[in-house]
Amino acid sequence: MSGVRGSMTGMVDRTTAVVWDRALLDYDMGDHPLNPVRVELTMALARELGVLDRPGVRMITPVPATEAELTRVHRADYLDAVRAAPIDPFFSGWGLNTPDNPVFDGMHEASARICGASIAAAEAVWHGETTRAVNISGGLHHALAARASGFCVYNDPAVAIAKLLDLGAQRVAYVDVDVHHGDGVQAAFYNDPRVLTISLHETPLTLFPGTGFADETGGPGAEGTAVNVPLPPGTGDGGWLRAFHAIVPSILRAWSPEIIFSQCGADAHRLDPLADLRLSVDGQRAAYVAMRELADELCDGRWVAMGGGGYALVEVVPRAWAHLLAVATGEPLDPYTRTPAPWRKLAAERCPRSEVPESMTDGTEPPVERWQPGTTPDAVDRAILASRTEVFPLHGLDPHDPRD
């Protein structure tokens, strides 16, 4: 990685690539929770707020990932199935043509383009062309080597990380804050000591995909490279951020990553219809700021951020990810910024049954709560201690010492 570090030497100002093309909206499963309008409204909101016109922001138009890039993660016969499924009304198997993963015209091409967008983001950062990069359409973290799962056909974070490994990366950190466990990315690299996966999510006892327990810590030769923080239903800003800060910074500092990937699913929000955590947009914004600060501290700012889940299509996702784009491109937005009138009009036209928010805040101030073992023995703290107990010793850290 010395070459990349050298290419960043002397860079004071952080620059950001935003990967975007309206063709990314073609990943469209029809009457389905994963409606691409959430991505359309995010980009429209960021544009109206001036985020995409900031100094140092560069727009990148992606191309679809190639067969060779996709087969670093997915089996070739699975790619054949994805191509064949839309032309066969009776197609079955591979996790396709199900309520979660309905087939649609151009499915292979649309899925490959999202993977290509995440590859473009990763390469731009790795080659020192930009400090940070964002692919809001990405984050499809459930797809497995030969199976569609959880609304995900191809696993763009895993494909992009595999690309970096091929380019010589030795220490890639992946931090997943979606409400669902990042199972597909963990599975892709469970036995690879070059990739650290960290996932904070609602407990698999109550939520899909049923994986992500604290004792999933990595395969032989890669012990400690999978970190899971399963949190109880009802966890809000205070508990969630306490868990994040009790685990993520310590592990990342011990790991010393060359680059940080973040999957920033917005479905941990209290209004999300598919899960039961209770975060606010303000709490999500605080998490994005924390991840950017860790990238600045540990790897010269190299940070690749992706979208992910999020099914409150107007009320939550556009605001959360506009905050993400603002954090990645420079100064975080004032939470009390009003949503622009042209955007509110567009949102009302696109989703007439939704309540269009007038402000970028939920009106909450995320509390700062430092984890102290044994002082607040609630369910969140038990989850924190369970995760620390499983993985901290594998990194030479003391699970009971709050300084670690």
From TrEMBL:
Residues annotated as domain Histone deacetylase: 32-326
Keyword Ion transport: no
Keyword Ribonucleoprotein recorded: no
Molecular function, one GO term: histone deacetylase activity
Example of a GO biological process term: epigenetic regulation of gene expression
Pathway info: Ketone degradation; acetoin degradation
InterPro entries, alphabetized: AcuC (IPR003085), HDACs (IPR000286), His_deacetylse_dom (IPR023801), His_deacetylse_dom_sf (IPR037138), Ureohydrolase_dom_sf (IPR023696)
Protein origin, superkingdom: Bacteria
Keywords: Acetoin catabolism
SUPFAM superfamilies, A to Z: Arginase/deacetylase (SSF52768)
Region span, Disordered: 350-376
Family statement drawn from the similarity comment of this UniProt entry: Belongs to the histone deacetylase family.
UniProt name for this protein: Acetoin utilization protein AcuC
